[in-house]
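Friendly challenge for the regulars: who can give me the structure tokens for this chain first? No prize, just bragging rights.
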Amino acid sequence: MDYFIDESGNTGDLARSDATSRLEISQSFSLAAVAVPDELSLIAEIERLRVKHGIQGNELKSSALTDKPGFVLDIVRYLCAGGHPYFLEVVDKKYQLSCYITQGQLLPPIPGVPDDERLHYCGMWWQTTSTSGRPTMCSLST
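First reply, four minutes later:
Bragging rights claimed.
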């Protein structure tokens, strides 16, 4: 079984001085993975769909496919019809940054301190409060 993994929305290091403008460009980060038992069949189907929809180039970039929703839909239909296992996660970047700060600086693992529900509640409260209660994360998988 082959696994294909890709991400979208990585606009660079959020610790840099121009991080605010980077968050305005892309407010979310997504990660997707799909398991494919027969890579050659997938390649053949993608090539067939490229011809059908007039798509050129070596790499499929989402920015180049915005005017080709039929191509994307055909790929999704192919994967769903084949019952391919998948994973998809979309995370708000401010929430992700808040999680890093919480888990690495505010509430890092400390020897002798139990990692229990109260500690998790405190971390989740801070992460939600510091991002103004915005929607934070969505995950789907099979």
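The longest strand covers residues 28-36. The CA atoms of residues 30 and 90 lie 4 Å apart. Your move, everyone else.
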